[in-house]
Amino acid sequence: MGKVFKIGLPTVLSMMTVSIAEIAVLFLVNRYGSQATAAYGAVNQIVSYVQFPAISIAITASILGAQAIGAGRGHTLGKIASTGIGLNVVLTGGLVLLGLVFSRSIIGLFITDPAVVEMAQTLLHIMLWSTVILGMSMVLSGLMRASGSVMVPTILTMLAIGGIEIPAAWWLSEHYGLNGVWAGYPIAFTAMLLMQTAYYQLVWKKKPIKRL
After folding, report:
1. Which pLDDT score is estimated for 9?
2. CA distances from 45 to 81, 89, 100 (A)
3. For the chain, where are the alpha helices, taking DSSP H only?
4. What are the domain boundaries of the chain?
5. What's the pTM value of the predicted model, to 2 decimals?
6. What does the pLDDT read at residue 212?
7. b/e 136-174 (16+ beta carbons within 10 angstroms → b)
8. What is the end-to-end Cα distance of the chain in Å, rounded?
């Protein structure tokens, strides 16, 4: 129970940070009127579908990593990480490409107002590509969590979402309007990947990996 609590509590805090950040983003979006809010909903629907393979690959990497550690095959963790990142680039990247090419048609499935479609298409082009970066970060984070190293990856995620995304979205919205709000996503995801990669390469890989 103690180990479950130790691993689970940071994850809960991370999910709460993401939820609070989404509320903050929606607050910023609502300032631009009902059309902006409608575009926010449509873009989020599309992004949620594109994120499915990224989330699934990250979960799989975590499971395989835990199994490898439990079997005493820690030397395969690097290969699991590279394979997960590669699959994410191919699968999630493929969906991103389709979403960008057919963005207008896909958005039309959710909204019909031409002005909102145009707005949503712009917002989708600003941030959809960063889903690939998010997926790569999630693979590394999931693999480190599999070894019981939960606290630091969680703190880095919370820092990227709460400490970078929201301030960046607010500052950019003051200078670039609604588009600036959405620019906060790729900035945060890129920062998250850089921080997770730095910790993975410089600290985690040098630690002894033991079974829980």
Report:
1. 76
2. 28, 21, 14
3. 2-30, 34-70, 77-87, 93-101, 103-107, 114-127, 130-146, 151-158, 166-176, 178-202
4. 2-206
5. 0.90
6. 66
7. bbbbbbbbbbbbbbbebbbebbbbbbbebbbebbbebbe
8. 12
